Amino acid sequence: xTPKDRERAYExxxxxxxxxxxxxxxxxxxxxxxxxxxxxxxxxxxxxxxGGFLLLQDDDTSSDTAxxxxxxxxxxxxxxxxxxxxxxxxxKPPAKPKQFSSVPPASDAGGKNWTFTINTTCxxxxxxxxxxxxPQAVSAMLLLAKSGYFDGSPCHRLVTSGIFVLQCGDPTxxxxxxxxxxxxxxxxxxxxxLYKAGTVAMARQGGNAKSMxxxxxxxxxxxxxxxxxAGGYTVLGDITKGLDVVKKVADGGVSGGASDGAPTRAVxxxxxSVAAG
Length: 277
Description:
alpha+beta, Cyclophilin, nine-stranded antiparallel β-sheet, two-stranded antiparallel ribbon, 4 helices, 19% strand
């Protein structure tokens, strides 16, 4: 075994151990909120609005400004195999995610569209952000993407029943992390509560329109997500390329055979970039 192979094997073991610890922590959290998680359509509203769809996001509003740890590039991943077309991520989440003291002004979105590129360890996803219809959410996303806030962070949650989403944006991978600021109200939510495949939207706490932070979800199949007292969920924009990447992750199902939890085909955000137009 070459030194490079040994290093890759070591990093793989470290990632698997980290994933195992994360799974135990997530299982404990899920048991604590079991009453808020749906099993059937009758409880869908409770799940989406009060459950843990990042909609159960406990935003950390501390002012800690620690910078993220360095992360590898998308090419620094282990090879995929026949049963898992997504390479095992080798990028690392920051030991202490960067924090911001305040949300940027909505005017930073410029009232125009932006191209948001998410380089994941399973492929590239390109999103067109609508700075006119969701200026506050887009301005926040621009800040986070440009600062490298998402680099190394895992997409920690996949839902395969009732609603169909892959949730990302929390460098801690716990579903409770945030950038240090929160904002609202809800912008650009669909009036019919239908979030079509390819939609990219912000998650929030149930009933709290001002609890959006960094976590977002990618809809890979048409999903009806009922509104609550705070409204629906802010739609940032739409996936223009790479929906097949999200579906590839979803096709692997949820770890342990459940319908809500960490994706079996682990995927992380290696880097992001934004450009006008």
